Amino acid sequence: MKVAGADMTPEQLRAALAASQRQVADMAAAQEEFLRVVSHDLRAPLRHITSYGKLVREVLGDLPADVLQSPALQEAQEFVGTMEQSARRMAQMLDGLLALSRVGRAPLQLQPVALAGAIEKARAALPMAEAAQWSVAADVPTVQADPALLHELLVQVLGNALKFSQHQPAPGIAVRTVPAARGAGWVAWEVQDNGAGFNPERAAGLFGIFQRLHRETEFDGVGAGLAVCRAIAERHGAHITATAAVGQGCTVRVEWPAAAV
């Protein structure tokens, strides 16, 4: 059996490799540009839907009281409410696409980042963070990361832990250092909550864009946050996973390059 490239000189192999790398880079750039353009251009009609929904409500509000109480008008107001809710959800989905595109295009500015300080900063950015009991290990490591992108990942991961544990009588979130499976040059940490958890049989697509494991009536969001986290981790050569059980909370594990000594 003839192996592809067996008759090529080293110079030809290097040229073919360079051409393949350019093709991959071009495809990635085209995908990122597509996400950016689509998410930007869809906002104009979405703004029209939102604006006209408010106008319809104003018109309905000016009708006589007896008309407003009629079943037909009550139903019409419900339709408008559904339209406005769907428009808000679509806006959130566009925000998710923009965030994913931005993460893919942002230049990496790698430097040592103390995880303890980064966690505290991310927690301070979360509304209602004080509603949970937090436990952050004293030995969380220093990592080699882009500070802005690491902050975005931590806000998403800690925010999810807070969101999905909010219905517990005593919400609890713990961050701890764990051994890195990849050995020297790597560090690992886990974020564990005592929230709703999820069915592990449905975990395969957890980090995909717009993937949700809970009903919208239970928890808000459109399922874009973990996709952004995965993109951030991959840009750093890191790895992020999650395990859970229904009603027993969730554990997110992150394995990351250690800070250069």
Automatic annotation (TrEMBL):
Q: Does the keyword 4Fe-4S apply?
A: no
Gene Ontology biological process terms from the UniProt entry: osmosensory signaling via phosphorelay pathway
Is Heme tagged as a keyword?
A: no
**Official protein name in the record:** histidine kinase
Which reactions are catalysed by this chain? ATP + protein L-histidine = ADP + protein N-phospho-L-histidine
Q: Name one GO molecular function term.
A: protein kinase activator activity
Q: What class of enzyme is it?
A: transferase
Pfam families in the record? HATPase_c (PF02518), HisKA (PF00512)
- Determine the domain of life of the protein's source: Bacteria
Q: Where is the Histidine kinase domain?
A: 37-260
Note the PROSITE patterns from the entry.
HIS_KIN
Q: InterPro entries recorded for this chain?
A: BphY/WalK/GraS-like (IPR050351), HATPase_C_sf (IPR036890), HATPase_dom (IPR003594), His_kinase_dom (IPR005467), HisK_dim/P_dom (IPR003661), HisK_dim/P_sf (IPR036097), Sig_transdc_His_kin-like_C (IPR004358)
What EC number(s) does the entry state? 2.7.13.3
Query: Where are the annotated coiled coils located?
Result: none
The opening ranks of the lineage are:
Bacteria, Pseudomonadati, Pseudomonadota, Betaproteobacteria, Burkholderiales
SUPFAM superfamilies annotated for this entry? Answer: ATPase domain of HSP90 chaperone/DNA topoisomerase II/histidine kinase, Homodimeric domain of signal transducing histidine kinase
Q: Which UniProt keywords apply?
A: Kinase, Phosphoprotein, Transferase
